[in-house]
Design goal:
By secondary structure, the protein is an all-alpha fold. It is built from 3 helices and no strands.
Length: 67
Amino acid sequence: MAKSNSPKGYGNDSISSLKGADRVRTRPAVIFGSDGLEGCEHAVFEILSNAIDEAREGHGSLITLTR
């Protein structure tokens, strides 16, 4: 087995996991691809797409977008 070049003391205790909304707040680019306008645009389209899918499945009949 090859030797690891990782720093001494690195292991499971060194890894942290973010839960819920903290994942998005801390690293929006990971979720949306960018923390700029493109990421915001992607988020809006993703939310709208999910809403359309839910309506098509019978879980709603009206989708309202507000500014």
